[in-house]
Amino acid sequence: xxxxxxxxxxxxxxSHRLSPLLRLLILTQLAFNIGFYAVLPFLSEHLGQAIGxxxxxxxFVLGLRTFSQQGLFVVGGAxxxxxxxxxxxxxxxxxxxxxxxxxxxxxxTWAVIGAVLLIGFAAALFSPAVESEVARQAVxxxxxxxxxxxxxxxxxxxxxxxxxxxxxLLGALLLSVDFRTVCLAGAGIFVLVLAGHAWxxxxxxxxxxxxxxxxxxxxxxxNRRFLALCCAYGAYLLAYNQLYLALPDEVERATGSQxxxxxxxxxSSLLVVAAQLPVTxxxxxxxxxxxxxVAGLLLIAAGFAVVAAARPADWTGTAGLLPAAGFVVLLxxxxxxxxxxxxxxxxxxxxxxxxxxxxxxxxxxxGLIVLLGSSATGTLLDTGLPAAVPWLVLAAVPIAAIALxxxx
Length: 408
Prior knowledge:
- The protein is an all-alpha fold.
- Helix content is 80%, strand content 0%.
- The chain has helices at 2-15, 20-37, 43-50, 55-71, 73-83, 85-105, 109-143, 149-174, 179-200, 216-221, 224-240, 246-255, 261-286, 289-310, 317-349, 355-381, 389-402.
- Helix 2 (20-37) runs parallel beside helix 8 (149-174) and helix 14 (289-310) packs antiparallel against helix 15.
- It is globular.
- The two termini are 41 Å apart.
- 50% of the residues are buried.
- It is a multi-pass membrane protein.
- It is found in: Cell membrane.
């Protein structure tokens, strides 16, 4: 917890230089993730053990949640452009409260599906609204001489990771009572977020006016440079998703169980919280946006290559975990370079007044790439190829993404 506290303190020191609106939105990301991750890590076991769903149905329900969230980000972003972020954020909070409360009492399959769809769509409303406004305010902060916009977006990443770290700890504590208590606690957090934003979020943000829906999507689909960024970002997310697909398989092989996964996930979160801001500051002083993403993608590729190089030795036990730990560290360092920069790049590629739409589309398009790519990755891991081959193929994905990045 020392590293977590240090990272949050650094983030807070940086946030003192930001506008009240930016501080509110960054703290919003922290609160969102605490409430969300207090529930999500325990959902799969609840559906399978307490409700008795078959494995395929559990996977289907979790997939629906992902689709209703990532797939509909573009809708939430467009609504934020049209009506402003305040009504969209407040509506998302209301839906999240209702979804968590419903999930806590749901016992039938149809009720669980309804609650999960509500939870996912809530995030599809408030997340692109918050992210797009943070990006817009970050550009204004940069233009006023405050510093690089990527520093502001790095703060958003730190807040999100801190919430993802604290949320499961809170959920595990409350799970000693029951899953319903966990859900109601998650709903309670969003009640507080709703009340705080109803009070503090401005009715009108200067410089942000409503735009029509018509014409926005067509222009986006013709924006080749933005779509190229989406594809490159999708390749990064596909690589990052291997924390949940390829890494568990490697940990199981090395130790005979997946108990070490929790430590590796904690390592990733703590690295982001403690090192994101220094890494962003270092990169911002030396690298342009494209070069920063190139460096991040190369680090991610190196992480896969470390495991590929070690697989022929077939190490087990503690020694067998070292390549997996190296993979996590390199992947996380790559994430620190890629994620804030990709968000910082979107305002330069977006059509005037449609930053919400483009921010949402970045998540929706890349999420679709992850959905399709994960199926291919699962097949690759099960084909019985030589041990190093799947990891080498995965290392090629971020390298190929470099060629997709816009040149300017």
